[in-house]
Design a protein that fits this description.
single chain; 413 residues; mainly alpha; 80% helix
Length: 413
């Protein structure tokens, strides 16, 4: 065990905390494996692919409304009980949807899964940011995030077998089960969380100057928002291109393909998270870690332009998922560490929820327009390349802001 902790750069006294967050993330992403396989399989096998951009738009609207409500509620309740409530609602909701499975509910499932999944993911990383210091996060977030890779591998490779044995109707109950197990681990997080001061109540001014610009008052958060918007739109375009290519497959083959794809992604991600991400961040820093995902998406988009076949679509999606949930996701969470807890509680749900998914809705409109005018999925790579250039240039600006915000945070201590 001591060899393993040294290999994973876990210091004495950190093991219990790391394992708690690792296990929670394993169950959360495991629920995503079952839920997304159910969502994609049910929807794509029953509805024409041309309706998928409409789902992106509905998701953006639904998440925007949900984040607005959540922001108001978060002013009255602390993060931990809110997280427990979200997990409980999520676990119960998919059991209810299973009971009422019918053609009309598949679009509802598609939207609802993204809503509840987005909130759970935001809450998890906010809890993790509260539990780990900046130095701990740089070493250990990759270990925590490896829970996703292991879930993808273990469940992905077994998905085809499970579907053959149990049919696709087991997917939603399995989603509920994993969210429920995630809820159990959330109970054990309390002892590891740093105390967060509640947001000041509205009242007479105490002389504290309110930051101009509202939620996106700092240039650092604005640049971060640009990169998140670019990542969301390009990711949605690549996702649509892949699903357009695989939509002709029968339901059982589609579920098997998604399972094997996520399993392979998870297998590679395990190696990345355990042996690459933490060491890469320590050696080369956040900037170069942020460059891998746009590079992979650029390569994937080029492959689809040259040969829009199943292999190209799957490889583009694989490159997106491998780097998005390893180097990129871990680095993106590190970017939030210099931000104060109060500002983070306001800005993170808005940026990672409303704006990110609003960009997904914008991508839906973009897909509808381009497919109506040209009806050629290869042309979706044109806006992708433009946004990838903007994204890469913004990363350099983001690195400067990250260093500046870290200095400010250190000076305030």
């Amino acid at each position: 065990m001591s060899f393993l902790t040294r290999l994973l750069q876990i210091k004495e006294g950190e093991g219990k905390k790391v394992f708690t967050f690792f296990l929670c993330f394993f169950f959360v992403v495991g629920s995503f494996m079952f839920g997304r396989t159910a969502r994609d399989t049910f929807f794509l096998s029953r509805f024409d692919i041309k309706y998928l951009p409409h789902m992106f738009i509905l998701i953006a609207i639904a998440i925007g409304l949900t984040i607005a409500i959540y922001t108001r509620i978060s002013k009255r309740y602390s993060l931990l009980p809110l997280t427990m409530a979200t997990f409980a609602i999520g676990a119960g909701s998919f059991l209810v949807i299973q009971i009422f499975l019918a053609p009309w509910i598949y679009p509802v499932l598609y939207v609802w899964f993204e809503v509840i999944g987005t909130i759970m993911m935001i809450q998890f990383w906010m809890l993790a940011s509260s539990a780990f210091t900046s130095r701990e996060a740089k070493r250990l977030f990759s270990v925590v995030a490896s829970g996703a890779a292991i879930a993808n591998t273990a469940l992905g490779f077994s998905m085809g077998t499970l579907v053959n044995l149990l049919g696709t109707n087991f997917l939603l109950p399995a989603t509920s089960l994993f969210i429920g197990l995630g809820l159990v681990t959330v109970f054990f997080m309390k002892q590891h969380l740093a105390p967060v001061s509640p947001a000041p109540a509205r009242g007479p001014s105490t002389g504290t100057k309110k930051k101009k610009g509202g939620v996106l008052g700092s240039s650092y958060l604005r640049v971060m928002t640009i990169t998140i918007v670019a990542a969301s739109i390009v990711g949605a375009l690549v996702d649509y291109q892949m699903k357009m290519i695989v939509s002709e497959l029968p339901e059982d083959q589609m579920a098997d393909l998604f399972g094997k794809l996520y399993g392979t992604i998870g297998f590679i991600s395990i190696f990345m998270q355990f042996f690459v991400t933490g060491r890469f961040l320590t050696t080369f820093g956040v900037l170069w870690a942020l460059m891998f995902l746009p590079g992979a998406l650029l390569l994937g988009s080029a492959m689809i332009v040259i040969t829009p076949v199943l292999f190209s679509g799957v490889m583009a999606k694989a490159g997106d998922q491998i780097f998005r949930f390893t180097l990129h996701d871990t680095s993106s969470q590190l970017l939030w560490l210099p931000v104060s807890p109060q500002e983070k509680n306001r800005a993170k749900p808005f940026i990672d929820g409303t704006i990110k998914n609003g960009a997904g809705g914008l991508s839906g409109l973009l897909i509808m327009a381009l497919m109506y005018l040209f009806n050629d999925i290869r042309l979706l790579s044109v806006p992708s390349v433009f946004l990838l250039v903007v994204w890469v240039l913004s990363n350099f600006k983001l690195k400067q802001g990250y260093v500046s915000e870290l200095r400010k945070a250190i000076e305030k201590r």
